[in-house]
Amino acid sequence: MSRRQLPAPELFQAAVNGDRSALARLLSLIERGDDDARTIGRLAYPLSGSGYTVGLTGAPGAGKSTLTSSLIGHLRAQDLEIAVLAIDPSSPFTGGAILGDRVRMQDHATDPGVFIRSMATRGHLGGLSLATPEAVRVLDAIGRKWILVETVGVGQVEVEVAGKADTTIVVVNPGWGDSVQANKAGLMEIADVFVINKADRKGVEETSRDLMQMLDLSDLPHDTWRPPIIPTTGTTGQGVPELWDAVLAHREYAESSGDLRERRAFRLREELREIVATRLGRRARQICSGERWDQLTDAVVERSTDPWTAADEMLAAVDA
Amino acid sequence: MSRRQLPAPELFQAAVNGDRSALARLLSLIERGDDDARTIGRLAYPLSGSGYTVGLTGAPGAGKSTLTSSLIGHLRAQDLEIAVLAIDPSSPFTGGAILGDRVRMQDHATDPGVFIRSMATRGHLGGLSLATPEAVRVLDAIGRKWILVETVGVGQVEVEVAGKADTTIVVVNPGWGDSVQANKAGLMEIADVFVINKADRKGVEETSRDLMQMLDLSDLPHDTWRPPIIPTTGTTGQGVPELWDAVLAHREYAESSGDLRERRAFRLREELREIVATRLGRRARQICSGERWDQLTDAVVERSTDPWTAADEMLAAVDA
After folding, report:
1. How large is the ipTM?
2. What are the pLDDT digits (tens) for A221-271?
3. How confident is the model at residue B178 (pLDDT cuts 50, 70, 90)?
4. Domains, chain A
5. What distance in Å separates the CA atoms of residue B253 and residue A300, rounded to the nearest whole number?
6. pTM of the model
7. For residue A91, which residues of chain B lie inside 8 Å, CB to CB?
8. Which of B 17-56 lie inside 8 A of A, CB atoms?
């Protein structure tokens, strides 16, 4: 039997035993989000919980992937095993265009201590928001202690997903990228650590002052943890050890304060809510078919009724 | 009574009569997505249907806003009244950073023939995907014949929203932006017209060839409408008349072929499905509360059960 046909539980066992291509296949099943994904989720769930997730987000072009690559190097030098989940459509990890970065990644790709995976979730009903925690849990269950989740810091879902890590790094550039500027409210909310990447350029101090001012003005409870601001140069690795120290400091704070436990419990409750909502969504799809549905949608298209009245009718039919 | 306290139906009437600040207030209510939004939606629905929506999307930095600004100038020169809905977090329309662009926008902002509005949908349960068509319908109902919807071409929801226009323009740059490159499958699917903006740079011909090759390889039914490829320079306005001609040509094709009618009917059905799903989601929030919910979530947090089993239990309780 080829690996492609192995049942999910056997694939999972193979992955736990260190089989990387079984792991890759498992993650493909997660992406598809069908019954196999649920089987895998159920197997992974009791084994997970010891891995630690680090989110990394920022505007396209902020240098996230180069920074991630430097970070991988730093962690590998300490013999830490890590997994990287890239769900940034602009990331070279996900098959993007920057050849140099991709080549740099290739170095890590041959290192058994690093597992890099890009996510595509077109089949998954719950989209990125449900597929990501499932994929993270598989990586956690097979024993990866550090899981990096890279997302692009634009897009409703993508920013949310980045904010659901144990520690979230927000990457900006000197002088602010315009994308970051515009989306700053969302990014401010989720940042545990700020990075000013490309710090070899002008404007690091002004950007740092801006960030500090924004932190002062924000109504987040920064008396307990105030996100440090770390200048880095991803291409040279400058500042990367300091960045990692900041992640470790945040982890220590989160663990000792009870924040981590609370955050994870909150996340699980949110995920459970989303699973319930997605199941109800599947039910909506069932509701939204058949003769009555056709009549109602025709009425909406012809403007003899409006979508909200039609929705009321469809839902009333279910409740009856 | 101040305008802020006017009931939604009176605000709507004022907007129909040309009151711009009433219109702005209406759109704020739409963004909040509460009962007022539904009232407005019901009022706007029967009056809408004659406006035509043009989506414009592409990677951050592709020059979408500058191009939009040039496009506005071109349309105003023909005395066409237009509305712009900017739901791109990196757009200067949404309060971004490029001062030059913002200044250029300001010119249009004092022109009564142009209405520019950015969207923030943090309160709206259905997010961008439901708030956008509602906002478009209000602009349509008050008599705007052309409605431009600008979104950033990264992010799951944002690309979908752009694809739901009557004509969708996808903006790329010579040599491809890396973001576009990575996300090209999604963008290829929704493009009715391609723009190679910043055409004063090198690489326009190669990019054009790339796009043509991708069109040749794609399995989209391009025998009926093949997206033209228009080089533009947003900063000078070069190519903008040709771009508009391409939009008009697509509109003519869509209207005469029946494609527009089909597309709009499909969109309405999708929207109705999403309204039903969102309502069910609200119900999920109700389900996901109470004593049984607390017990189940605690069990998930303590890993004595998994999220899928817990979801099954919650849903079974509803069905019983």
Report:
1. 0.77
2. 655 899 999 999 999 999 999 999 999 999 999 999 999 999 999 999 888
3. very low
4. 1-47 (no CATH), 49-257 (3.40.50.300), 274-319 (no CATH)
5. 24
6. 0.73
7. 182
8. 38, 41-42, 45-46, 49
